[in-house]
Amino acid sequence: MPFGVAQAHHLNSCPRMFVKMKPDGSSGSCAALRRSVRCSRTESTPPVTEARLQHSEGGVAGMAKLRGLEQKVELLGIDCEDLSRPGFYSNLFCPKCRGGQKVERSLSFHIVQSVEFAMWRCFRMECGWAGQAFADSGKSCDGDYAAIEVGSAVDMTEESLRLEPLSDEIIGYFAERKILEETLQRNGVKQVSGKQSEICFTYKRKGQIVSCKYRTLDKKFRQKGVIKAFYGLDDISEADEIIIVEGEIDKLSMEEAGFINCVSVPSGAPCKVSDKQLPSPDKDKAFQYLWNCKDYLDKASRIILATDGDAPGQALAEELARRLGKQRCWKVNWPKKDDSGSFNDANEVLKHLGPTALREVIEHAEAMSPTYSEPSNA
Predict the structure, then answer these.
(1) What is the model's pTM?
(2) Which of 150, 57, 36 lies closest to 111, judged by CA?
(3) Are β-strands 262-264 and 329-331 bridged in parallel, bridged antiparallel, or unpaired?
(4) The Toprim domain covers which part of the protein (predicted)?
């Protein structure tokens, strides 16, 4: 059933709801409403904990993953409630419109059976708020996940997001990583007004901000946006050769080495390469940013994957190549750092070896297709 359409239970299947009006004509708080009414899919349901364990893949571990995902959407104001179960649709109160004058449970909320992500949409025409939160959007698998809030394109401006030029502290932070202030300015890197240590990377498509990723100096992330897209997308609009990296700072590092034609994935890497068949584009939620930018990627005849050198980063390179076609993908090999291992990403190479060394790494990327051979100079 299409996302956003409530399934077996609708508002008229809920118990009748009585709202106590305040003297000023406003209704009581949504918290009170949440306590006063619960929707159920069936007339008889098992106890909450038992039901959620039954519908959460992975038993107790799956339950912990489910709770971690719920905590992220709760940061956006969504009350998942105890009866939200993976694989089922729930009608909840929308934190944006509060259900309008009728105080409807207008937010269609769904956690997929595998607990990999949650999605929601308010079906009130005046609102339409929608979004997704992914359990694997961070590189770690320990519950340190990021939520993505989806809003209206009209809202995504520097003014509405309360962005301002970078402070000397943040400029110094990037300088330590060999990234110049002019590079930050060209890429629209800002900070949140009133939050001196929170950096904002603005994601743009045709000059319009479509998403923002926020990062504190101690590496805490959050994300807000209209669509999932690559960071730096406008820089590859006409590129025949592009570079894909695994973080905004790596994208900026590539520019210091002379590569403008570079984008970063908006979220982290999977823990491992999937052994399942590729899903159709409309169901490939973890890589939706790739399909949203397909018209840009289709123009490229050569794609260099410069993801991190750790296991998740290498898994990400393989997953990207599966979707992009290995025949046009090349992969970098990060240089040795010492006897214990190699550098992990573009910024490490830039910081320790300099821009020339980083450029050489890209120029010596290896073809991923075993049938590819370099053209003869003859």
Answers:
(1) 0.62
(2) 57
(3) unpaired
(4) 240-329
